[in-house]
Amino acid sequence: MPTCADAIEELFASESGSLTAPEVIGRLYARWPDRPWKETTIRQHLVGMSFNHTSAHHVPHLAHRRILHWTPGGHYRRWDPAKDAAPAATRDEDTPKRVLDLTRGASEETVGYVCHGTIVRR
Question: What is the pLDDT along the chain (122 residues), one digit of tens a residue?
Fold first, then answer.
Protein backbone atom coordinates (compact mmCIF):
# COMPACT_ATOMS: atom_id res chain seq x y z
CA MET A 1 0.00 0.00 0.00
CA PRO A 2 1.54 3.33 -1.00
CA THR A 3 1.44 6.40 1.18
CA CYS A 4 -1.05 9.14 0.32
CA ALA A 5 1.77 11.26 -1.14
CA ASP A 6 2.98 8.31 -3.25
CA ALA A 7 -0.56 7.72 -4.54
CA ILE A 8 -0.94 11.40 -5.51
CA GLU A 9 2.43 11.35 -7.28
CA GLU A 10 1.39 8.20 -9.15
CA LEU A 11 -1.92 9.79 -10.16
CA PHE A 12 -0.34 12.99 -11.50
CA ALA A 13 2.48 11.11 -13.24
CA SER A 14 -0.09 9.84 -15.73
CA GLU A 15 -2.38 12.90 -15.70
CA SER A 16 -1.70 15.58 -18.29
CA GLY A 17 -4.47 17.97 -17.28
CA SER A 18 -5.69 19.53 -14.07
CA LEU A 19 -7.98 18.01 -11.46
CA THR A 20 -10.05 19.40 -8.62
CA ALA A 21 -9.71 17.94 -5.13
CA PRO A 22 -12.99 15.97 -5.49
CA GLU A 23 -11.73 14.51 -8.79
CA VAL A 24 -8.44 13.48 -7.17
CA ILE A 25 -10.31 11.91 -4.25
CA GLY A 26 -12.62 10.04 -6.62
CA ARG A 27 -9.72 8.68 -8.69
CA LEU A 28 -7.77 7.60 -5.62
CA TYR A 29 -10.83 5.87 -4.17
CA ALA A 30 -11.47 4.17 -7.52
CA ARG A 31 -7.89 2.87 -7.53
CA TRP A 32 -7.95 1.92 -3.82
CA PRO A 33 -11.60 1.04 -3.05
CA ASP A 34 -10.86 0.27 0.60
CA ARG A 35 -10.32 4.05 1.02
CA PRO A 36 -7.10 3.96 3.03
CA TRP A 37 -7.03 7.78 3.40
CA LYS A 38 -9.68 10.19 4.61
CA GLU A 39 -10.79 12.97 2.27
CA THR A 40 -9.26 15.56 4.59
CA THR A 41 -5.91 13.74 4.46
CA ILE A 42 -5.94 13.79 0.65
CA ARG A 43 -6.89 17.48 0.60
CA GLN A 44 -4.07 18.34 3.03
CA HIS A 45 -1.62 16.39 0.88
CA LEU A 46 -2.74 18.30 -2.22
CA VAL A 47 -2.11 21.59 -0.41
CA GLY A 48 1.24 20.47 0.98
CA MET A 49 2.42 19.05 -2.35
CA SER A 50 1.70 22.31 -4.21
CA PHE A 51 4.58 24.72 -4.75
CA ASN A 52 2.34 27.78 -4.84
CA HIS A 53 -0.64 27.01 -2.59
CA THR A 54 -1.15 29.82 -0.11
CA SER A 55 -1.48 27.34 2.76
CA ALA A 56 1.35 24.96 1.83
CA HIS A 57 3.48 26.34 4.68
CA HIS A 58 1.04 24.68 7.11
CA VAL A 59 2.13 21.26 5.82
CA PRO A 60 5.95 21.48 6.12
CA HIS A 61 6.48 17.71 6.22
CA LEU A 62 5.48 17.59 2.53
CA ALA A 63 7.82 20.38 1.37
CA HIS A 64 10.19 17.81 -0.15
CA ARG A 65 7.29 16.22 -2.10
CA ARG A 66 6.08 19.36 -3.90
CA ILE A 67 5.23 18.48 -7.50
CA LEU A 68 1.93 20.27 -8.03
CA HIS A 69 0.76 23.67 -9.24
CA TRP A 70 -2.44 25.04 -7.68
CA THR A 71 -4.78 27.52 -9.33
CA PRO A 72 -7.03 29.75 -7.21
CA GLY A 73 -10.00 28.09 -8.95
CA GLY A 74 -9.16 24.93 -7.00
CA HIS A 75 -7.45 22.89 -9.70
CA TYR A 76 -4.21 20.97 -9.26
CA ARG A 77 -1.83 19.87 -11.99
CA ARG A 78 1.77 18.79 -12.25
CA TRP A 79 4.13 21.77 -11.88
CA ASP A 80 5.75 22.66 -15.20
CA PRO A 81 8.89 24.82 -15.08
CA ALA A 82 8.30 25.91 -18.68
CA LYS A 83 4.90 27.48 -17.84
CA ASP A 84 4.93 28.18 -14.14
CA ALA A 85 6.92 30.71 -12.21
CA ALA A 86 9.76 29.37 -10.13
CA PRO A 87 8.49 28.39 -6.70
CA ALA A 88 9.00 30.88 -3.92
CA ALA A 89 11.86 29.88 -1.69
CA THR A 90 12.42 30.78 1.92
CA ARG A 91 15.91 29.35 2.32
CA ASP A 92 18.81 29.11 -0.12
CA GLU A 93 18.70 25.31 -0.07
CA ASP A 94 15.11 25.51 -1.31
CA THR A 95 15.95 27.78 -4.24
CA PRO A 96 15.20 26.02 -7.54
CA LYS A 97 18.41 24.95 -9.26
CA ARG A 98 18.77 23.85 -12.85
CA VAL A 99 19.54 20.20 -13.55
CA LEU A 100 21.75 19.95 -16.60
CA ASP A 101 22.21 17.03 -18.93
CA LEU A 102 25.90 17.06 -19.75
CA THR A 103 25.90 13.56 -21.22
CA ARG A 104 25.32 15.00 -24.68
CA GLY A 105 28.72 16.58 -25.11
CA ALA A 106 29.29 20.13 -23.94
CA SER A 107 25.65 21.16 -24.25
CA GLU A 108 23.98 22.56 -21.15
CA GLU A 109 20.41 21.56 -21.82
CA THR A 110 18.15 22.13 -18.83
CA VAL A 111 16.24 18.94 -18.13
CA GLY A 112 14.54 20.05 -14.95
CA TYR A 113 14.86 21.86 -11.66
CA VAL A 114 15.58 20.86 -8.10
CA CYS A 115 13.44 22.49 -5.48
CA HIS A 116 12.89 21.36 -1.88
CA GLY A 117 15.07 18.34 -2.64
CA THR A 118 12.80 17.16 -5.48
CA ILE A 119 13.85 16.98 -9.13
CA VAL A 120 11.05 18.29 -11.31
CA ARG A 121 11.70 17.31 -14.91
CA ARG A 122 10.67 19.42 -17.86
Answer: 899 999 999 999 999 899 999 999 999 999 999 999 999 999 999 999 999 998 999 999 999 999 999 998 899 999 988 888 766 654 444 445 555 444 555 445 555 555 555 555 55
Q: Which class for 107: exposed (0-12), middle (13-18), buried (19 or more C-beta within 10 A)? A: exposed
Three-class SS state of 26: helix
In this prediction the pTM is 0.71
C-alpha–C-alpha distance, residues 32 and 23, integer Å: 14
> Which residues have C-beta within 8 Å of that of residue 25, sequence separation ≥ 6?
39, 42, 43
Helix, coil or strand: residue 76: strand
Single-letter residue type at 51:
F
What residues have CB less than 8 Å from 81, skipping those under 6 apart?
96, 112, 113, 120, 122
